[in-house]
């Protein structure tokens, strides 16, 4: 019996040591650590527009790399992330670089429950906090509507469509109240079920090239307005 207990303890300890780095670095602060150091050391001048988000932001350069030819644009998207994770890494990945404009696109993974159950009010609060921190530092803020989703393939049955509509209404109201920019991706990309139009997505959640080509001009229009305020 004692030997079995020792074996169990040994296996348990080994399992802890074998946990992936992601489990230890919950917000994935290490993901952009090298890129952040390089940016800080670059002495780069000119405006900085930082895009904070999840896989939709991260995947944009793969589908429409030309959009990111703009030297002002800095991508800080990490796949699968939720808003509390982004809030934790917001100082290191965004504020530390003194951006002129911060573009926030997040919330769909909260609704999908990627890091556990979360209310819309909690998601909204995290986005509100990031926006307030950016403004406090002097950056212009651009909030983005969460893209439409009818169902999540990796977690079906959550009925996200109307939740996204509600969250976007909260974000639009915040933008109007605080004078933030607002990119209405949802209206431009939703079908009759309040999901992504099939021609704009490869999986019902993430945009394809056509989807990003819809998003690009909408984002640029709000960024131009934001930069004009500086």
TrEMBL record:
<dbReference type="InterPro" id="IPR013830">
    <property type="entry name" value="SGNH_hydro"/>
</dbReference>
<feature type="domain" description="SGNH hydrolase-type esterase">
    <location>
        <begin position="51"/>
        <end position="214"/>
    </location>
</feature>
<protein>
    <submittedName>
        <fullName>Acylhydrolase</fullName>
    </submittedName>
</protein>
<dbReference type="InterPro" id="IPR036514">
    <property type="entry name" value="SGNH_hydro_sf"/>
</dbReference>
<dbReference type="InterPro" id="IPR051532">
    <property type="entry name" value="Ester_Hydrolysis_Enzymes"/>
</dbReference>
<feature type="signal peptide">
    <location>
        <begin position="1"/>
        <end position="23"/>
    </location>
</feature>
<dbReference type="Pfam" id="PF13472">
    <property type="entry name" value="Lipase_GDSL_2"/>
</dbReference>
<keyword id="KW-0378">Hydrolase</keyword>
<keyword id="KW-0732">Signal</keyword>
<dbReference type="GO" id="GO:0004622">
    <property type="term" value="F:phosphatidylcholine lysophospholipase activity"/>
</dbReference>
